[in-house]
Specification:
single chain; 270 residues; alpha+beta; Beta-Lactamase; 2 domains; 6-stranded antiparallel sheet; two-stranded antiparallel ribbon; 9 helices; GAF-like_dom_sf; transcription regulation; DNA-binding
């Protein structure tokens, strides 16, 4: 029987995988604040050189990223992409569709599901309420820069600030060309509003007179997986009407998160 491959430092490949996993679990637990190198090697019990070497390899593969200013480590963009692939066993659209229909029935307005695809937000689902004037601001399958639209900005609020800035810089020229009234300062203000209040109100750039309210959907591990938004005439998104729709969205996003957690726990037992 062939013996297991041994790395340059005398450790087996299996041991190295365990070490990588241990570091990733530590970073995941503190992902929003990030972790310093010293925190990681002390918490993991590894030596400083070994921890640094593993982290640099993970950074190269985009599994981990290091903030240029704080030098702290966070989960990288590849982890998000892998998470989307892992979630394919329970399609987010299938999970969310009954909740979209419920929100549409309770509010009377049009409801949208937004998910991330690279640097874009994609309309992955839509449900129509009974109110006669419809706010069809998005067709299912439409891509827009992830900085544009209530659902996309709600999604961004769950990401690290440097990742949000990276997405903006990638999309900057396209936004300037296609959305000339876009204001990056307003984007950041809306992101902060979501983080403090749980939702945002957005004026729909493409359709005058239409407003949207949106909330992020968080997965079982705390990362954003999508966003729900309701679009309606401005008069239907103010005062008591707004408070009622925020309550409906809050209940729906919480229920979706609970179902995703249940699906994730069931999958882990298989």
């Amino acid at each position: 029987m062939k013996s297991e491959e041994v790395t340059e430092d005398g450790r087996t490949g299996t041991q190295m995988v365990h070490r990588c996993a241990a570091l990733l679990k530590l970073i995941t637990a503190e992902n929003r604040r990030g972790m310093r190198l010293v925190d990681l090697y002390q918490a993991s019990g590894l030596t400083r050189p070994t921890t640094h070497r593993i982290l640099q390899a993970l950074v190269t593969e985009r599994i981990v990223r290091q903030d240029e200013r704080s030098k702290k480590y966070h989960l990288g963009s590849l982890v998000y992409e892998m998470g989307l692939a892992a979630a394919s066993s329970f399609d987010l659209r299938d999970v969310c569709q009954p909740f979209l229909q419920r929100v549409a029935a309770e509010t009377g307005d049009t409801v949208f599901l937004t998910i991330r695809s690279g640097f874009d937000g994609v309309c992955a689902g839509r449900a129509e309420g009974a109110y006669p004037i419809k706010a069809f601001v998005l067709d299912v399958g439409r891509h827009r820069p992830l900085n544009i639209g209530a659902g996309s900005v709600a999604f961004l609020s769950g990401l690290q600030d440097d990742e949000i800035e990276r997405i903006y810089q990638v999309n900057r020229k396209r936004i300037a060309r296609d959305y000339p009234t876009f204001d990056v300062k307003h984007m950041w203000a809306r992101i902060e509003h979501v983080r403090s209040e749980g939702y945002l109100i957005n004026e729909v750039l493409e359709v005058p007179g239409i407003r949207a309210v949106a909330m992020p959907i968080f997965g079982p591990h705390g990362a954003p997986v999508g966003a729900l938004s309701v679009s309606a005439l401005k008069k239907r998104l103010s005062g008591n009407d707004l408070r009622q729709k925020v309550a409906v969205l809050t209940k729906a996003t919480g229920d979706i998160k609970a179902q995703l957690h249940a699906e994730d726990s069931l999958e882990a037992k298989r």
